[in-house]
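Posting for a labmate who doesn't have an account.
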Amino acid sequence: MKRELTGILLIVLIMGACNHAPQEGTYHLRGIVTNEKLEGRTIYLQDAVKGTVRYDSATVSEGRFVFNGKINAPEVRELFIQETDRFPITLPIVLEPGEINTKVGDIVLVEGTGLNEEMMQTLVAIDRFKDRDFTGKEIKEIKEAFAGFVLEQIVRHAGSPVGKYLYKAYQNKLNEKQQAEARKTLGIG
C-alpha cells in the first residue's frame, strides 16, 4: 500500500511539474534596467514603428520588469521608457514563444530567442554604420549610403519579421526603386 501511494504521489508530482513548463505560444520577457533613474518608471510594450499603440506596461521594480503573454506568430514590438530629462530609451524586440531577456539603460540588449539574436545583430550593424567616419562626405552621399545599407539588411532578413520591421521603420530612407525592390523581396504589396 505504501509503495502504491508513493508511486501515485510521484506521478502527481511529475504531472504538476509538466504544467509549469512554458506553454506553446507563450513568451516570457524579463528585463534588467541598468539606469537607477528609471526605478519606479513605467516601461511600455508598444508598436515598434509608430509607437502610438501600447500593448502592455510594467513598472520597474528593483531594477527589473517582466512581461508575459501569448503570441500566435512572431511580431516586432518596442520597449519604451521615458526618463524625465532625456530622450526616451527604446529597444525593438521580437515577441515570439520562449524566454526573452533584455537590458535597458545606458546600453540596450535583447537575447534569448533566435529572432531576438537576429534583431540584436541587426541593431549592432546599424550602430556600426552610424559610427563610420563620414568626414568629407556630402549629406546626400551619406543618405544614399544609408539607404543602400538598409536595403541590404532588408534583403538579408527578408525571411523573418526583422526584415519587415526594417522596411516599415526605414522605408522613408529608401528611394522609390529601393522601396519597390524591398517590397518585392518581402512579398508585400
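Reply:
Got it, the C-alpha cells are right above this. The longest strand covers residues 26-33.
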